[in-house]
Design brief:
This is Vps53 N-terminal domain-containing protein. One of its GO terms (cellular component) is cytosol. InterPro entries: Vps53, Vps53_N. It is a single chain. The protein has one domain. 73% of the residues lie in helices and 0% in strands. The protein is elongated, with a radius of gyration of 19 Å.
């Protein structure tokens, strides 16, 4: 609703009060973004099994991200996928596992990762296609 209201007052951006309110709104969105990213930083560390409500909290945070700009969602998903693939890079970076005949181990790794983290994938809205984007990034990296 606030986004729609801001777009309605776009023609009046020359007025100081409108500019001040837009700046406050921009700061609030930045604070929300930093809080959401902070909350998501604990995802995948094992804390989600300790805190049952963390997954629900992160699922709700996805709604906040959707209310922000689309670039925030893209950045969050990209950051999450990069973090997920960090262990993949560490495992398969060595010369022995980097050979072509070890490709099946790489794909077994991603399939296992997708299966073991099914609970995590459920927190993201299906319209975000996070597992799909993770696989795309995995293929590019491979």
């Amino acid at each position: 609703a606030v986004n729609q209201l801001c777009s309605h007052f776009e023609a009046y951006r020359d007025f100081q009060k409108i500019t001040d309110l837009r700046e406050k709104f921009k700061n609030i969105k930045q604070i929300l973004k930093s809080h959401v990213f902070s909350d998501f930083s604990s995802l995948g560390t094992g804390k989600e099994t300790e805190e049952g409500n963390l997954l629900q909290q992160l699922s709700d945070a996805c709604l906040v991200v959707d209310a922000l700009e689309p670039s925030v969602r893209e950045e969050l998903v990209k950051t999450f996928c990069n973090r997920e693939l960090t262990s993949y890079q560490q495992i398969f970076e060595g010369a022995e596992l980097a050979k072509l005949d070890k490709t099946e181990r790489r794909y077994a790794w991603i399939k296992r990762r997708l299966r073991t983290n099914e609970e995590i994938w459920k927190i993201f809205p299906s319209s975000w296609h996070v597992p799909y984007l993770l696989c795309i990034q995995f293929c590019k990296m491979t």
